Amino acid sequence: MSVLIDRGTAARRRRGRLTDESGVVAVELAFVLPILVLLLFGIIEFAVTYNRVQALHAAAREGARVASQPYATSAEIKDRVQDALEPVSFPTAVNIAVSPGTSQPCNLRTGERVTVSITVDDEIDIPLWPGGPMTVGLEGKGEFRCE
Fold first, then answer.
1. pTM for the complete prediction?
2. Residue environment code for 11-36, b if the CB has 16+ CB neighbours within 10 A, otherwise e
3. What span, in angstroms and rounded, lies between the C-alpha atoms of 84 and 105?
4. How far apart are CA 41 and CA 5, in angstroms?
5. Per residue in 88-104, pLDDT tens?
6. Is 130 helix (H, G, I), strand (E, B) or coil?
7. Buried b or exposed e, range 59-87, using 16+ CB within 10 angstroms
8. Measured between alpha carbons, how far is 100 from 109 in angstroms, rounded to an integer?
9. 86: number of CA atoms within 13 Å, CB side?
10. What's the rounded Cα separation, in Å, for the pair 120 and 93?
């Protein structure tokens, strides 16, 4: 009778090993975690880049508002744009263009349009992204009528 009991115990042990799921969660986490990290940092990088684009548009509008005044100079316009961009940091230099490109864009030009454009290269770096960091061009534009 002891032989039958031993065989039954051995069979239960073998079945227990086949249905044991103690390492399954760790394996699933190893598969899913890189995708979740990529997604999380992608969302964060998108939000930072979107914030920078909005700052460029706001600074360009502010520059165009100043440029619409008859005696505003290009230096004053660029200073105002730089002041508006102060809270946001960019990895490269910001390029500011005023159209028309005269020293006083709205002097004797009542009713015509003045445009301020800002461009900058930004770097998007998402961990685990296969291509590494990407460089993208960002642009902000503002347009007002000359007073």
1. 0.78
2. eeeeeeeeeeeeeeeeeeeeeeeeee
3. 20
4. 57
5. 989 889 999 999 988 89
6. coil
7. bbbbbbbbbbbeebbbeebbebbeebbee
8. 10
9. 7
10. 7
